[in-house]
Specification:
alpha/beta; FAD/NAD(P)-binding domain; Methane Monooxygenase Hydroxylase, Chain G, domain 1; 16 strands; binds flavin-adenine dinucleotide
Length: 501
């Protein structure tokens, strides 16, 4: 067993930004901090790697912090924590500089200026991007700059399967190798959960299969507060298909002039919102859902043909290539069949402005955290920004704490016996998609809670089990929190919509 000052669960933008900031701070301050970074797959198997649109930060003179703050608050229906919104938005240009310092290559115009684009809900062009594959560029930048550091222990292909905290506040993590099942234990003075979202709870999601919500499960087990788990954002335009992980068609296409059409070819968004195709995601997703229901179709169309072949190939090369190679759809000429799909968790582990949870030395950053930035709905391209901002704040806190509390000597730890039941992941995904999706109703939420409780009660205990079984057990527990939170909502707000309210 090894002991580290800081264990970080997650190698997406949140976890790896934290490694980069801690690296810089320890060098600047001449300090020595030991880290462990743990990821379920290889370090690049993250949602971050699939982010397309980009990262929001005010830059041009016609834009202002005030308007980015207001756009964020409007999208979040003013449930956001305004102080947090102000801090994140005003720090955003510095966050962009940090990413550039670490090697990030944001697109430039022919004149040599940064090529900022517009997305749904943003009044001005303030999205910094790398073609239509910003996340992949960020992921490889961060991976490169956080590898081969002497004070870091790397655990790639290790899933954290159990977390406990002893009376002295030390965290113990049981790790299981995802291929060999070998078990290891590490202990840590500080634990940072950067485990991403909960997409695996739904039948259709843009998230990678790693997103089983483990961070939220462990936080709950440790007694941390979880908030607003029912605020689940559905992306309006996943490419229609049979797989669980839906390929995302970025809203930057609508920002550039793409239009949603029903099967007759009518542009219908003007009926739903004055911002038409550029309305916030929840409005667009519900509008599409209603149109599909009315017409009895499984998808509607996104028409990007007006953008022209040159613009599509320059600005959206990955989407163009993906649709052509995998579906035979040339998006410069053909309409794209799209469907709303689970996309982002706005709620999560409640944290303060340093990413600290309600449990001492337990941090949460990135998508698994509820920082107050998003309120009832996330404004596009604010989540990558949030992940880096809170990694920076957490790093500043941790770098001082770790020095004040030098690592203790190793102590042996016996984990409690785990209870893993035989549960169907597929059945859960179907239930949540039917009753805790874009449009909910009270009876459906209550029935699903009863179904989960009965299923948990009746299921047999497994004597041997796989990593997938462990994840599925976590998913049932998190679903209960999500459903109960949805039932507690007294009005429809942001991404939460109950047709009976
Ligand atoms: C298709 C797509 C497009 C998007 N586009 C944008 C965009 O343009 N702009 C924007 O701002 N946001 C976008 N988002 C949202 C944004 O990408 C995510 O919110 C963000 O990348 C989450 O980063 P993260 O570091 O919190 O988690 P992730 O990047 O999801 O990383 C999670 C990490 O946690 C690890 N992990 C999880 N559980 C365990 C465990 N039990 N043990 C060990 N490791 C574990 C995983 O292995 C992984 O390393 C998009 C999301 C998707 C899916």
């Amino acid at each position: 067993m090894i002991h580290v000052d800081v264990a970080i669960m997650g190698s997406g933008i949140a976890g790896l930004s934290l490694v980069n900031y801690l690296k810089e701070l320890t060098i600047q301050q001449g300090k020595d901090i030991s880290l462990a970074i743990i990821a379920k797959g290889n370090f690049d198997q993250t949602n971050t790697n699939w982010a397309q649109g980009g990262i929001a930060a005010v830059s041009s003179e016609i834009d202002s912090f005030e308007s980015h703050i207001e756009d964020t608050m409007v999208a979040g229906v003013f449930l956001n924590n305004k102080e947090v919104v102000e801090k994140v938005v005003t720090a955003a240009p510095e966050i962009i500089k940090d990413l550039i310092r670490w090697g990030m290559d944001f697109d430039k115009t022919e004149e040599g200026n940064f090529d900022l684009v517009k997305e749904g809900g943003h009044r001005y062009s303030r999205i910094w991007h790398h073609k239509d594959a910003t996340g992949a560029a960020i992921q490889s930048t961060l991976s490169n700059s956080s590898r081969h550091l002497s004070a870091v222990s790397y655990y790639e292909y290790y899933a954290v399967v159990q977390v406990e905290r002893d009376k002295s506040g030390i965290f113990y993590l049981r790790l299981q190798h995802t291929e060999t099942n070998e078990l290891q234990t590490i202990s840590a003075t500080n634990l940072v959960l950067a485990g991403g979202g909960i997409g695996a709870l739904y039948a259709k999601t843009t998230n990678q299969p790693i997103c089983t919500g483990d961070a939220i499960y462990f936080a709950k087990e440790l007694g941390a507060k979880i908030k607003d788990l029912c605020f689940v954002q559905f992306h309006p335009t996943g490419l229609y298909g049979e797989e669980q992980t839906t390929y995302l068609i970025t809203e930057a296409i609508r920002g550039a002039g793409g239009v949603l059409r029903d099967k007759e070819g009518n542009a219908f968004m003007v009926k739903y919102d004055e911002r038409a195709d550029l309305a916030p995601r929840d409005i667009v997703a519900r509008a599409i859902f209603s149109e599909m229901k009315k017409a009895g179709t499984k998808y509607i169309y996104l028409d990007a043909t007006a953008l022209g072949e040159e613009k599509i190939k320059t600005h959206f090369p990955s989407i163009h290539a993906y649709c052509l190679q995998n579906r035979g759809i040339d998006i410069a000429k053909d309409w794209i069949p799209v469907v709303p799909t689970q996309h982002y968790l706005c709620g999560g582990i409640e944290v303060n402005s340093f990413g600290e949870s309600s449990i001492e030395n337990l941090y949460a950053i990135g998508e698994c955290a509820n920082t107050g930035l998003h309120g009832a709905n996330r404004l596009a391209s604010n989540s990558l920004l949030e992940a880096v901002y809170f990694a920076k704040k957490a790093a500043n806190k941790i770098v001082n704490l770790a020095i004040e509390n030098p690592s203790p000597f190793l102590v042996e730890h016996d984990f409690k016996a785990t209870i893993i039941k035989q549960l169907s992941r597929h059945a859960l995904q179907q239930k949540l998609s039917d009753h805790a999706g874009i449009i909910k109703n009270t009876q459906g939420l209550k029935d699903t809670i009863n179904w989960i409780n009965e299923t948990l009660f009746q299921s047999t205990l497994l004597s041997t089990y796989s990593l997938a079984d462990i994840e599925t057990n976590h998913m049932y527990e998190i679903s209960l929190i999500l459903l109960k939170d949805a039932l507690l909502q007294k009005k429809n707000i942001g991404v939460h919509y109950n047709e009976e309210l």
